[in-house]
């Protein structure tokens, strides 16, 4: 293949070498584009699930009509897919963190999962053009609901959700310097001892 210099190209068409290099640059840029993080992928899936819930709602809801009450309906709907055993107050294992036997209490969504879900959906709502002051995921009723779920699950499961305090880093003392080696006998001492 012949290299074409810019001066010898009368029609100002890009040379094949430049065209190939620019195509390679574009494909390299596309391949080096950062892949979405785990959080971004989960946020996208959660948003799709919520929008699907709104479409399947009877009557179907638009995002602009969505309120904190609809978010609460969505959270209660998700409880059927939960994997966390939450004991009823009448259950003999109420308040025990590790019950000794199975019981008929329902499986629910764990409070931590719901809290993280609301955080992701709140961010996704604003990324999709929603106004922060009209965000249904930040509604007071949703915050109260999450607090009540946390408190009830803490009692029912015997698990405390107190914030853990960060411990200050302890200063590590430098190791003591190594002991000096014993002195070597000098030649004068060795010759004096041999006499």
From TrEMBL:
Task: Tell whether DNA-binding is among the UniProt keywords.
Answer: yes
Q: Where in the cell is it found?
A: Nucleus
Q: Where is this region: Disordered?
A: 157-195
Keyword DNA-binding listed? The answer is: yes
Q: What is the lineage of its organism?
A: Eukaryota, Viridiplantae, Streptophyta, Embryophyta, Tracheophyta
Protein name per Swiss-Prot or TrEMBL: ALOG domain-containing protein
The family note in this entry says: Belongs to the plant homeotic and developmental regulators ALOG protein family.
Which organism is this entry from?
Hibiscus sabdariffa (roselle)
Q: Where are stretches of biased composition, namely Pro residues? A: 173-185
């Amino acid at each position: 293949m012949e290299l074409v210099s810019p001066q010898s190209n009368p029609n100002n068409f890009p040379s094949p070498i430049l065209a190939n290099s620019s195509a390679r640059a574009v494909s390299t840029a596309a391949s080096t584009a950062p892949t979405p993080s785990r959080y971004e992928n989960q946020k996208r899936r959660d948003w799709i699930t919520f929008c699907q819930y709104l479409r399947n709602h009877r009557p179907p809801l638009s995002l602009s009509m969505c309120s904190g009450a609809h978010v609460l309906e969505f959270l209660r709907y998700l409880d059927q897919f939960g994997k966390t055993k939450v004991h009823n107050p009448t259950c003999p294992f109420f308040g025990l963190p590790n019950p000794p036997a199975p019981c008929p209490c329902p499986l629910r969504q764990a409070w931590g999962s719901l809290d993280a879900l609301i955080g992701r959906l709140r961010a996704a709502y604003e990324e999709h053009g929603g106004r922060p002051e009209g965000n249904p995921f930040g509604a007071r009723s949703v915050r109260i609901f999450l607090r009540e779920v946390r408190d009830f699950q803490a009692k029912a499961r015997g698990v405390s959700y107190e914030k853990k305090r960060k411990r200050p880093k302890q200063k590590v003392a430098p190791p003591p310097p190594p002991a000096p080696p014993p002195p070597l006998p000098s030649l004068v001492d060795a010759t004096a001892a041999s006499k």
